[in-house]
Amino acid sequence: MGLRKRISAVVIIEDDEFRELVRYNLFLDGFKVIPAANSGSGMELIPIEQPEVVLLECSDWTDVTTKLKQDAKTRDIILLVFTPGETINRIDKVLSYGADDCIDKSIEPEMLGKTVREKLKKHQKQIKKARKSKQIPIVVIDDDAGLRRSVEFNLNKEGFDVYNAQDGPSGLELVKKVKPALILLDIVMPGMDGLEVLSALKYDSKTSEIPVIMLTSESTLGTIDRAYEIGAADYVTKPIRGHKLGETLKKNLKKSNRLFGF
User: Mean pLDDT for each consecutive 10-residue tract of the chain (262 residues)?
Assistant: First the structure.
């Protein structure tokens, strides 16, 4: 009951008749529901209504997700994307763009309210935990701006303070300046690649003890053995899922005795 009173609004951005089905069932479950037929009207409504939840299923969901998660005023709104249950790859992509979670579009209508409440409660606990805990500094070195934004959005909720670099040389400078607890490093980058950056980090006594987790794709998994030989602590395969990445970071920080506040 307490959680229900805290919900001021749910904005639904959906471009077909499914929108009305969602609106009706959430209304019956006590939500204030504001429907939007497209992303443009939805993005206009969000700053006015200031919802706790945005439910999204439209053709340009990537734009909406990026804009919401880049803006400090809307970053903490829980963003749930409706996806067909069988499309696991799409779910990974949705989460990699910064969405907080997915809902199977084939869900029983009467379960919508309960599902949204559970996901909202989980999200609020994550935000509260992150704000209470000491922020752990990490550096992300990757030439993909979209991936950097996604990692930052997801790890901020997990209690990490994320610093980004777009290439190897700037990443090495940033590491010396920030002195992070951990480094996320892409393997494939133009110019100075990830293995070269890793070698430089491990050669320098000031950075050699910092755990480095490699970011790799299926096509570059063959280089992981070489990364381990140089001194990598672990690796994560793209597309990246936020909560899984947080778990991997915390596991490696515990191993190196660099985890504080968790």
Answer: 55 85 89 90 90 83 78 82 68 73 86 88 74 78 86 81 92 93 94 95 93 85 88 87 78 72 41
> Of 101, 130, 159, which residue constitutes the final position of a domain?
130
**235 φ/ψ angles, rounded to the nearest 5 degrees:** -145, 155
> Does residue 261 belong to any structural domain of this protein?
no
Query: 113 and 79 share a domain?
Result: yes
Q: Does pTM top 0.85 for this prediction?
A: no
Tell which residue, 188, 177, 178, has the closest CA to residue 224.
188
